[in-house]
């Protein structure tokens, strides 16, 4: 059995007595120690105010020590100098109190707030405005130039001998073009499947093109419905069977794929597959005599087919389709055109005497090549990219003297 010692009242009173020099005794002397610290701070601040040069010279001196806030009994001590000896003596004297309260020492050891030096940034140099061109106006008699059209805008043969739309169409799709399309289509069918070649003739090709024209006049949700016994068109049914039409539709071609150059190689053409057809139609249009008033503007060939050439122009009546840059007259006839295939600026498309005016403006220059010179034609452009200043820079391309 463990023996327990019972404490009497005298032992309990002995344990409860406060020994001398304890922390409770220190709390009784806080007021005295605070008075001593305040007195020392007042002396230091008065000395600094009377001698501001001391603070300016010795603030960043190595002799000035800033105590760590973790220290419980450290104080801000300034080493003695010639002008602050009295302050140093006061700070170096020991305190009359037994011990300084840690809380009061933290307050006294905090460094005074020092104003940060002002950094004066260099003032920006004034931007010199560009010198404007000065014009000197002189009072003179204005002599308007002669703007009378010197060309001939009367249609001649064979345009005056066309009696039907078919003759007008066959003028552009002549026998040479039809023979070329038939030859390339037959060649493509052999390249596609040599065991099942499709022999395309000029007569079959004319029938195929005629049916394609009727498709634009009689739209159907499905092409096969045109050969339906109830909803079909008798003229189409009598002209060609559905099987022959599908065969021609699968092998129709305008250029030889062997000569195709892939993207990234020199000579790559995005419109390679239809380039012979485009060039033939352009030459036919350029041969028509041009009227006095001409215009360069964009037109839309409406379609929603999934193709990289399809453009979206919200301000046009037909918002989706292929974008064409066209040179036409005031009657709406097109003398030249280009299909927009992207902002391409190929130097090979420019003539040696033509300036580089940018991708869009170079299109206008190319379309105006077929306009006769020195006939005083009036050309209007509605593209923002082709203004008067660009036209003046490219006057050599138009062979115009100012």
TrEMBL record:
Domain PiggyBac transposable element-derived protein: 164-379
Comp. bias regions, Acidic residues: 22-33
Region of interest (Disordered), ranges: 1-33, 66-130
InterPro entries, alphabetized: PGBD (IPR029526)
Compositionally biased tracts (Low complexity): 81-92
Composition skew (Polar residues), residue ranges: 93-107
Protein name: PiggyBac transposable element-derived protein domain-containing protein
Protein source organism: Parnassius mnemosyne
Organism phylogeny: Eukaryota, Metazoa, Ecdysozoa, Arthropoda, Hexapoda
